[in-house]
Amino acid sequence: MSEPLVVVGAVIVHAGRILACRRGPAQSAAGQWEFPGGKVEPGETQQQALRRELREELDIDGRVGELVHSATTDVAGRPIELHCWWVRVQTEPRTSTDHDAMRWLAPHELARVAWAEPDLPAVRALESAAGNIEQWESVWNR
């Protein structure tokens, strides 16, 4: 088995809704939804990688909070190790270099879009912890 590809995703919450981004046509898994983020480069912490990816993809700065969920998923014979983190942003993203659409979804709406396979475990965890999302946002915004 090959070494897992370590990636990070941002669970950005605003007004009780979570940001979902659809992968653009030039991307692998085009048309599927994901949490914004990307690959952790050598020498980076997960938090550093996530801040860098948010600047590169969404042109926003984020404050990384607690870990939401981690899981490893096999995609076409390659293990993808996705770590999703709570992220607070001062401004909402308006454009993306990697995505052709963005939506703010309530926890009960997450299942309405077709998520990329590596993101599904985190989506399920968020759906089952809907009350925690509001609690986390309340604490985070103090």
TrEMBL record:
Its EC number is 3.6.1.55. InterPro entries: MutT-like (IPR047127), Nudix_hydrolase (IPR020476), NUDIX_hydrolase-like_dom_sf (IPR015797), NUDIX_hydrolase_CS (IPR020084), NUDIX_hydrolase_dom (IPR000086). It catalyses: 8-oxo-dGTP + H2O = 8-oxo-dGMP + diphosphate + H(+). Pfam families: NUDIX. SUPFAM superfamilies: Nudix. CDD domains: NUDIX_MutT_NudA_like. Keywords: DNA damage, DNA repair, DNA replication, Hydrolase, Magnesium, Metal-binding, Mutator protein. Its cofactor is Mg(2+). Residues 3-127 form the Nudix hydrolase domain. One of its GO terms (molecular function) is 8-oxo-7,8-dihydroguanosine triphosphate pyrophosphatase activity. PROSITE patterns: NUDIX, NUDIX_BOX. GO terms for biological process: DNA repair; DNA replication. Belongs to the Nudix hydrolase family. This is 8-oxo-dGTP diphosphatase. It comes from Brevibacterium rongguiense.
